[in-house]
Amino acid sequence: MIARKTMASATFLIAFMAVITSWGGLFLDGLYRDNALVVAAWQGNDIVTLFIVVPLLLASLAFSLRGSKRARLFWMGSLWYMAYNYMFYLFGAAFNEFFLLYAALLVLSIYALIFALIQTDALEFSRSFDEKLPYKPVSAFMLFFAILLGGMWIGLSLLFVFTDEMHESISQTGHPTAVVFGVDLSLLIPSLVISGILLWRKKVWGPILSAVVLIKATAYGLALINMTVISYRDTGAVDPFLSLWIALTIGCAVSLIFLVRNIGSGSKKAGSGTA
Questions:
Q1: Cβ distance 57 to 79 under 8 Å?
Q2: Which residue ranges traverse the bilayer (predicted)?
Q3: What is d(CA 217, CA 240) in angstroms, rounded to the nearest whole number?
């Protein structure tokens, strides 16, 4: 009971701080001190966080506390979104009044997700997945996603190494660092690969981790698309990767549907029963 109350309290605190930072980003003039393109991207992200992810986080927590396994996946996926999202703000946004909130959101989201995973009985949870779960098609998409995006960021990084040519996705931000490359290569790509392999091998953690990763990827895909729209509206800049973001977001959403629709209340065991 104490653990449930603690996790609920942590989730409410994360949601509260995310509302403050997102609302402030949208309505406090001068909060963001980046160039116009980056400010537009932050605000596009804030819209999705405030109006989609925060409600999803709170609703999924409520249903999870009532025993819903689907809701527990969406709750953990929303926590993963928060951790990934606020790493960008913490390390990518020009220093502003919300710096400490960004740090608190990153740390609290990471530890909340860790404790949520620790408290998940993967073997018992896996019995709720239908035996018709499309392990390999979903896994193949996730590994394709990882190879495609990771290959792009590695290729563009090597391009600079050998030609001294910096891609516009970095230069147009006005920042000296490639935060997107760094966060994706250290967090997103490994999470796709690890969960995808576990899913392919039908391990009990495979469907759980894959759903969490896909929930985050779908939500952040919506944020990327919205960032692109807002950036184009405010600056006229066109993201050359927009069609890719749309395709990957659709792929993540479809893969996620294939996973969560195969969660039932039966006792069929998914996977080999090993971690």
A1: yes
A2: 7-27, 47-66, 73-92, 98-118, 138-162, 178-200, 207-230, 242-260
A3: 19
Domain ranges of the chain: 2-260
Phi, psi for 267 (deg, rounded to 5): -115, 15
Query: b/e for 99-126, b at 16 or more Cβ within 10 A?
Result: eebbebbbebbbebbeebbeebebeebb
268 pLDDT more than 90: no
Report how far residue 26's alpha carbon sits from residue 61's, in angstroms, rounded to the nearest whole number.
26
Query: pTM score > 0.70 for this model?
Result: yes
Handedness of CA 195, 197, 198, 199 (dihedral sign): positive
Q: In Å, how far are 55, 125, 176, 218, 262 from 44, measured between CA atoms? A: 17, 35, 22, 15, 33
- In DSSP terms, which residues pair with 129 in a beta bridge? 263
Instruction: Please provide the DSSP assignment of 210-260 as one string.
Output: HHHHHHHHHHHHHHHHHHHHHHHHHH----TTHHHHHHHHHHHHHHHHHHH
